[in-house]
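Reopening this one. Same input as before:
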Amino acid sequence: MNKSSFRASFSSAIRNPTLADQYLYYNVGRAILVGNLNGFDSLVAIPSLLDFINTQKYDTLDFFNVKPLRPEQVKSIEVGYRASLFQHLFVDMSYYYSWYRYFIGYKLGAVIDYNEIFNRLNGFQVYRVASNTEDQVTTNGFSIGLNYYFKEYYSINGNYSYNKLNRQGSTDPIIPAFNTPENKFNIGISGRDIAIDMGFLNAIWDKLPVIPFNNYGFSINYKWVQGFLYEGSPQFTGEVPTYGKVDVQVNKEFPQIDLTVKVGASNLLNNEKFEVYGGPYVGRLAYVQVLFDL
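Same output, byte for byte:
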C-alpha cells in the first residue's frame, strides 16, 4: 500500500555574530581580518584606491563607513513531500526559501596615509571587516532523495540538492561568503545481512565444502560536487574545482559476540581534491573499525 505525506513550515530565527566576527584581529599579509563591534569610519573602497594609484586624482577615492555588526535575521518557508511507492521505492523531497535581513558577510576597505600638501599617498593598510548587508538577501534550494529496495536486503539510493544565494541585483559591496556548491549529488548501492553459500568448489568435486558467507554488508557510493567560488580572506578567495569521489565499505557481523568489523575507504580512487580554497589536497583514507554492541 502506498503511503505519502506533505509538510509545510514557517520559521524565524536570529544568528548572533561569532566571536571571530566580533573580536578577530589577524594579519594575513595582504590584509588584516578584523571583527566589528564599534563600526569603522572613512574606509576607502579598494577599486577607487587602485584608480587613485594609477591617476593620482584624489577625487577618485570612494570613502565609506561600516556600521557596528548586529545579529542576522532570517525568515524561512519549507515545503516537502514524502512517500512510499510501489512497495519498494521511498521518496523524500523538499524546497525552501529564506529571506535574510542584516546578512553577515565581509567588506574590504583601506585606511590610507595621505599627504594633502603634496597630493601623495604615503601608505595604506587593507582591512577585511565583518559587516551586515544593507539590502535583502535570499536563498532558495531543493533536495530530493530516492531509495529503492530490492532482493530484501539490497538498496539503491541517490540524492540531489540545489542551493542558490540571490542578492537581488544589490550593489552593496559586501562579500557574502556563502561558500556552498550550487549542485551536488550522491548515488550508491548497499546491502545488509547478506547470506550467500559459495558452492563453486563443491561443484567441481562434491567432497569439497560449500563456503558460507553470512552476516555481511557493503556500501558503494559516488559523490559529485560542482565547483564554486570560496570566499575567505583576500588571499584565500578562489575557485574550488568540481570533483567526484568513490567511497566503499564492507562489514561483517559476529552476532555471537555482538561484534561488527568494518573495512572501508573514503575516496577509494585517490582523486586528490580540496574543499576549501587555500586548504590542503585530500586523497584516499582507508580505515578499519571494530564496534562492540553493549
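So the earlier flakiness isn't reproducible anymore. For the record, The first helix runs from residue 19 to 23.
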